[in-house]
Sequence to fold (66 residues):
Amino acid sequence: MYHLSYISKEYPLNQNSYSVGGPAENATIKISEMRDGGKSYELCVKDDVSFLQLTEKGVLLITWKN
Fold:
C-alpha cells in the first residue's frame, strides 16, 4: 500500500503507529516526522482515511471515506 506520508517526496525520519478507538473500529494513527521538519498524521478507521501534513511550505489535508 502506498503510504500517504510520502506525498512530500521524502521518507520519514521517524514513524510511530498506534491502535486507537475500540476493537470494532480497527483504527490506527501513524505519526511521522519528516526530514524537512514537517509532521504528518494519518488516521485510518476501517477503510476510511484522514491525512494531515504540516510543513514550512503549507498544510495538506486529505480525507477518504469508503
Summary: The chain has one domain: 4-64. Residues 4-64 form one domain. The mean pLDDT is 83. The chain has no helices and five strands.
